[in-house]
Amino acid sequence: MIALDASALLAYLFRETGHEQVASFLGDSCLSTVNLSEVIGRFVRDGHDAHLVLKQILATSIEIVPFSPEQAALAASLQPQTRPLGLSLADRACLSLAMQRNIAAATADRVWQGVQAGIQVIVIR
Description:
By secondary structure, the protein is an alpha/beta fold. 51% of the residues lie in helices and 14% in strands.
């Protein structure tokens, strides 16, 4: 199982560099609802209907995981080390999901390589 950052899923959906790697683990992946909102927001920005995009994502094999109080605390604990790297709450939500489940996190953001969260970070490009 791999926790997807919005950037990784968007790279797959838009067939950007690294999309092949995301495709290889898409069938065994999960996505925080925080990152789900980011993905849907990207499509809304282009004029797509949010509910239609949600329906299409829910039809995939990606497990959608509600952002929990435990994940919120984990995300907050990452703030001191990730703020200098420019990571957002959504980035920390993905990392906290991976930490909670002790799984890898996949992202298109190279800056994540500097995060020490006790999990594997897969940078797709």
